[in-house]
Target: Phosphate regulon transcriptional regulatory protein PhoB
Amino acid sequence: MSRKILIVEDEAPIREMLSFVMEQHGYQAVEANDYQVALEKIVEPFPDMILLDWMLPGGSGIQLAKKLKSDDFTRNIPIIMLTARGEEEDKVRGLEVGADDYITKPFSPKELMARMRAVFRRVSPTALDEPLEIEGLKLDPISHRVTAYNDRVDMGPTEFKLLHFFMTHPERVYSREQLLDNVWGTNVYVEDRTVDVHIRRLRKAIEMHGHDRLVQTVRGVGYRFSSR
Ligand code: CA
Model:
């Protein structure tokens, strides 16, 4: 369930280093060493981000970025270009074809993580990577872990998404339909009652330390996540 990062880089030491850094930060790393392999790896479920080297055997990084950004299915995948020093013109071209950012080699893992977080924040403001906490209930979006006063809390993927949505949108009432759109997506057909089922499961999962009281029923309207 962690985010999948595709690393497209032909130089093995750099690729392996990046892969290591990604996994160290709770991401799932997928590697590609040239243009063709990269294309083969860009299939559903799509990577959540692509780190794309400039000079690649079989086609340039810029060609690949251009191709992905002109396709409806892949245009929303954020791309960070990895460029060598002094390729100023290329950076501009990269941004022109729709790359979301670039970083100049050599860079530190810290610098890269900061760029990645900034891009994630820009493309999906509600999907922040920072751990969330309300009254001892903690949710870490990267490691996909929930704890209540440091006790591990187990829950299904839908309950996790629901809790993540609630924790990033507290103190507001949402109707079942709004929750469906935000948590399940607008193209999914699910009955309103499904929301109630998952709310029940979520409450059960977090009741150990009384956090179920945060998930409040607002009669005739829907649900609210609130510490009041
Ligand atoms: Ca290269």
Q: What stands out?
A: The radius of gyration is 20 Å.
